[in-house]
């Protein structure tokens, strides 16, 4: 018996693997969603985790840090916001 596949429609779902709250602290949209500037979740709207372990949509935190009133601090804990090194995140 020989089977021939004539059509195939793949379906997939994804979500961010985040240990804490599942919403961006700035736009209050879920991580699986997008910031207000993006149409589709994924590579165009990645998450950015700070050394303080707070996570935000990349566009949200960059817009926040460009404001003079932010003083380059995390909006959640008010520590100086520095992106966590990607190499150290993979080791955890």
UniProtKB/TrEMBL annotation:
Q: Which UniProt keywords apply?
A: Cell cycle, Cell division, Metal-binding, Mitosis, Nucleus, Ubl conjugation pathway, Zinc, Zinc-finger
**Entry annotated with the keyword Membrane:** no
Where in the cell is the protein located? Nucleus
Record's SUPFAM superfamilies?
RING/U-box
- Which superkingdom heads the taxonomic lineage of this protein's source? Eukaryota
Q: Name one GO molecular function term.
A: zinc ion binding
- Pfam family for this entry, one: zf-ANAPC11
Matches recorded under PANTHER family: RING BOX
Similarity-based family: Belongs to the RING-box family.
Name recorded for this polypeptide: Anaphase-promoting complex subunit 11
The organism's taxonomic lineage, starting at the top: Eukaryota, Fungi, Dikarya, Ascomycota, Pezizomycotina
């Amino acid at each position: 018996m020989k089977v021939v596949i004539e059509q195939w429609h793949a379906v997939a779902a994804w979500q961010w693997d985040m240990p804490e709250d599942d919403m961006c602290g700035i736009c209050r949209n879920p991580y699986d969603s997008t910031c207000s500037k993006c149409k589709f979740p994924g590579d165009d709207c990645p998450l950015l985790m700070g050394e303080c372990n707070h996570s935000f949509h990349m566009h949200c935190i960059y817009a926040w840090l460009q404001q003079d009133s932010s003083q380059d601090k995390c909006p959640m804990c008010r520590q100086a916001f520095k992106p966590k090194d990607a190499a150290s995140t993979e080791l955890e």
